[in-house]
Design goal:
Helices cover about 15% and strands about 30% of the residues. The protein is built from 14 helices and 32 strands. The chain is globular and about 90 Å long.
Length: about 750
């Protein structure tokens, strides 16, 4: 798929149709036109276009009249019925786009050549579009009308509001559960990843039911392990859920599995713990109802030898046997019978294991070894924006993740957590600062050999998150109150109570991706700008360097909300004017006017600036820093402007120019150093190379009570350090962050000298 495939092209056979470039002329679409169509009593534009294309012998037309329509939904699913042995290969996924002309709604198929408009966040819900070419396709496996296919579209601006009350022109599009227009799959996928349950096929209505055990002969897991291979009718099992993994979607084109999902649950009785796999259609029926801690009665299951390369999570009780020779399988073909036993019916003589959390405090985390598994609890003080990283370079599948900070009051430093999607979108997409937050089954990632020391937590396959917010009770100083044991203990007990009841409480609320690039340079040329506008806007500072060695993503990427009153890793620029320090090498003065190309990506966009959290506007802030939704949600009340929210405190950013070895191409990138007091007395950065390697600025040792150094002094130190690197050859690792809507930011991730490996 070429880079231009997502941009509308004029149809040469149709005279008089002007096709402006969508990125340049999107503003030409007037606001409010969509809402006036119905008011004027005009005939539906959608109906007229459909009749026009049906009557056309070519099965495609350019509409006689082009009017703006509103986008109400963009929904993704697996692309089927396309040949896979052609070049270039067709995409894995396709999209249905629901539009409204003010009279009718219509669900249309988006031609796969336009998929890039969705990936770039240009085509999204809530905007106006003008459609310049449509075609009609038929699903030959279903009886019904043809499907409108959007072949050429111009994307406009966001609408202030869109009516959802218009009916569908085609009543088949109102069916429940919603079904994709093409292929045989019965469901849509989430818009930005495959791990989250999405749509109305995912049920949440399974309730505990009392069972009469007098005539039920239960078998223990240890006995089952010894006898299952010689037993035809397997007896019932009575187990407790100890762990629940996130969903795995394994759908592939032209495979006949309707709902290709899988999830692992670790279950246990008094004799052992074993893995249980739930397959396919059982996942939409049961996944959202099965919580950690529930007791299950299982009948009509099957057993198979365990997969040899899968690592089971550690048992909650070290005295319980870990059974790794077999796996329990729940598949619809066996007609399994799953009963949730009420907790009040659970008898002590069953000796079912209880949940045993491995809570650690922030002060204890410093002593934990690499890869240690633990649980944490505290108050959220920072919520980063949602980002995506590719699972495999050649695939269209992404991981969704965000960075968060949790304070528990035992240390000046918060927990830094790399939070991947845990198949809990109802929480993951509604995370706000100043709420009690629990993360389970986190893995410690640390490297004590670098400065500053690398230490953060990342989610595992079995991680789950819980959030509680007491409206009207949380204040801006509650993060400080978390230092008191009573606050932390209260949150911990409440979390345990939620898990025991099998419930999760949470407070109700752009496709972005990131990749890395390397380039060699003769010398970096930095320009320092620390800006504070009258509105209080500042440039963000990254969090401590906590990049993963495998994914190479880091929490220093642009973030959303920071509620700390005294964040230890940011610095306030109090000057009302721009503070500017600049250095240019003589080589740059000689070469900058004779370049073949000069790429300019040093701008830090407003949405990349961390904002102070406002409880009153938490829904708005949450929407700004979440991925774009698949369906349009009308705004509540007047929509504020992002610039009106104060930025979190920050040191500023460097604009760094990197010159290629051949002195023909240069690129401007942003460098976001972090101001840190960690090890300030013993570790003083005296070269820019060390500073850039760890994205960290250390202040000079101070004998006074002040904990921060003036921004001018710090900027001057960096500029002085870089001047010592004149004409040095270096290797630069760059973060390329696609913000969507044709906006991108490029950050300096690390910098190396060629003769060094670290």
């Amino acid at each position: 798929m070429s880079g231009e495939s997502g941009q509308p092209q004029a149809d040469p056979s149709q005279a008089g149709v002007d096709m402006p470039h969508p990125e340049r002329n999107g503003a030409a679409v007037p606001r409010g036109v969509v809402r006036r169509v119905g008011a004027l009593g005009r005939r539906s534009w959608i109906q007229k276009v459909f009749e026009q294309v049906i009557d056309s012998p070519r099965r495609w037309v350019t509409p006689l009249e082009v009017v703006p329509v509103a986008v109400l939904a963009v929904q993704r699913y697996l692309l089927e019925d396309e040949p896979r042995n052609v070049k270039p290969k067709p995409p894995l996924y396709c999209f249905d786009v629901t539009i409204s002309d003010g009279v009718y709604q219509e669900k249309c198929y988006l031609d796969p050549s336009l998929n890039s408009l969705v990936y770039k966040n240009i085509l999204k819900v809530g905007i106006e579009v003008r459609i310049f070419r449509v075609s009609c396709i038929y699903n030959e496996k279903r009886i019904g009308q043809g499907i409108l296919c959007i072949d050429n579209v111009l994307c406009g601006e966001l609408l202030e509001s869109v009516s959802l009350e218009t009916p569908f022109r085609n009543s088949a599009h109102r069916e429940v559960p919603e079904r994709p227009l093409r292929g045989e799959k019965s469901h849509y996928l989430p818009l930005w990843n495959n791990e989250d349950p999405y749509g109305d096929i995912w049920l949440n209505n399974k309730q505990p039911k009392e069972h009469e055990f007098n005539h039920t002969k239960i078998i223990s897991l240890s006995h089952l392990e010894m006898t299952w291979s010689n037993t035809k009718n397997l007896p019932p099992l009575l187990v407790r859920i100890l762990y629940k993994s996130k969903l795995r979607y394994y759908g592939k084109p032209n495979k006949k599995i309707i709902e290709p999902y899988q999830t692992f649950l670790e279950v246990a009785d008094s004799s052992g713990t074993v893995s249980m796999i739930m397959w396919n259609t059982l996942c939409p029926e049961w996944y959202k109802s099965l919580h950690v801690g529930l007791v299950l009665l299982l009948q009509n299951y099957s057993i198979r030898k365990s997969y040899p390369f899968r690592m089971q999570p550690l048992p909650v009780d070290p005295h319980i046997k870990l059974i790794s020779t077999m796996e329990i399988c729940l598949n619809i073909r066996d007609f399994p019978n799953i009963i949730i036993i009420p907790e009040k019916q659970v008898k002590p003589e069953w000796r079912l294991p209880k949940l045993n959390h491995r809570f650690v405090t922030r002060s204890e985390l410093d002593k934990m070894p690499n890869n240690y598994i633990c649980d944490v609890i505290g108050v959220l003080v920072f919520v980063g924006r949602v980002q995506r990283s590719k699972k495999k370079e050649s695939r269209e599948d992404f991981w969704s993740y965000r960075w968060i900070h949790i304070a528990d009051g035992t240390s000046e430093q918060p927990f830094i957590v790399e939070l991947f999607s845990t198949s809990q979108p109802e929480i993951f997409e509604h995370i706000y600062p100043m709420t009690y937050f629990t993360c389970t089954q986190l893995k410690v990632v640390r490297n004590d050999d670098q400065v500053p020391k690398l230490l953060y937590l990342t989610t595992t396959n079995e991680s789950h998150i819980f959030m509680t917010c007491h409206k009207g009770q949380l204040r801006n100083d509650d993060a400080k109150n978390a230092k008191r044991p009573s606050t932390s203990e209260a949150a911990r007990k409440e979390s345990q109570s939620q898990e025991k009841d099998g419930k999760r409480h949470h407070d109700d609320g752009s496709g972005r991706s990131q990749c890395h690039s390397a380039c060699a340079s003769s010398n970096p040329v930095p320009k320092k700008r620390i800006t504070q506008t009258p509105s209080g806007k500042q440039i963000p500072v990254p969090q401590p360097e906590t990049s993963s060695q495998t994914k190479e993503s880091k929490p220093s990427m642009p973030s959303s909300s920071d509620c700390r009153e005294n964040p230890s890793h940011t610095f306030v620029v109090r000057a009302k004017k721009t503070i500017s320090d600049k250095w240019e090498s003589q080589l740059w003065r000689d070469k900058k006017f004779s370049l073949i190309d000069h790429l300019r990506y040093s701008r830090v966009h407003p949405e990349s600036i961390p904002r102070k959290f406002s409880s009153e506007h938490r829904h708005f802030l949450g929407q700004q820093f979440n991925s774009q939704p698949a369906k349009y949600v009308p705004p509540e009340g007047k929509v504020p402007k992002l610039d009106h929210f104060k930025s979190a405190r920050s040191l500023g950013h460097f604009e760094l120019t990197i010159l290629g070895l051949n002195h023909e191409i240069a690129i401007d990138v942003a460098f976001l150093p972090m101001y840190s007091l960690q090890d300030a007395q013993t570790s003083q950065v005296d070269t820019l190379l060390t500073c850039m390697n760890y994205s960290c600025v250390y202040p000079q040792a101070s004998t006074s009570s002040e904990k921060t150094t003036g921004s001018r002094v710090l900027a001057g130190d960096i500029i002085k350090a870089v001047s010592k690197m004149d004409r040095e050859h270096v290797i630069c690792i760059l973060d390329i962050c696609n913000l969507g809507s044709n906006k991108a930011e490029v950050y300096l991730h690390k910098i190396y000298k060629p003769n060094k490996t670290s």
